[in-house]
Amino acid sequence: MNNNLDDFDNERAWYVIQSYAGMEYAAKRNLERRIVSMNMEDYIFNVLIPEEIHYETKANGEKKEVIENPYPGYIFVDMIVTDESWFIVRNTPNVTGFLGSSGGRAKPVPVPMHEMIPILKKNGVTITVDVKFKVGEKVRVMIEPFAGQEAVVEKIDAENQIVTVLVELLGRSTTTDLRFDEVEPIKK
Q: What is the pLDDT of residues 67-125, one digit of tens each?
């Protein structure tokens, strides 16, 4: 199979794949083996089954640590979608498909980063973000009620992907917090 990179936008993102209930760990192991055996390390970077730890009290009063999967049947994959990487993931034993891909070569839908950040943090995954603007620079706001307006970057919270901007509202400057994907840098 050739790597037809023109079919997809080639951006690295998190995607959700589905597996048979109770088979998430087997699917993860199978996928990790296939990544190595098919030399896909440059396209598929992380395979994550989120876990939450809580404690239950047993009948004798002892506390027992319980690890729970808050998303049974789902596995999160950090990858660049190409024809080949997509084929390898969806044809992995115990994987039933991508969430948000209805088949018929429909491209899978990535999970927005602002939704992935809390999941990644809970699971100890560190996030490095390529920030495309700096404090003091102008950006264009892409969401209502400020869509199309220019704003000045006041503060950047890279860990949570939040930018504080100064924007004009009814003739007054107002600060507001926006997600990184809600603003774009203004080309000079």
A: 888 899 999 999 999 989 999 999 999 999 888 766 666 778 898 887 887 888 888 77
pTM score of the predicted model: 0.70
∠ CA 86-91-92, rounded to 5°: 105
Cβ contact 12:93 at 8 Å: no
Given a contact cutoff of 8 angstroms between Cβ atoms, the answer to whether 52 and 135 are in contact is no
Mean pLDDT for the chain overall:
83
3-state secondary structure of 10: coil
Rounded to whole angstroms, the Cα distance separating 160 from 163 reads: 9
**Element (H or E) spanning 64, and its range?**
strand 63-68
Q: Residue 94's closest CA among 34, 44, 37, 12?
A: 34
Nearest partner of 15 among 144, 109, 117, 151, judged by Cα: 109
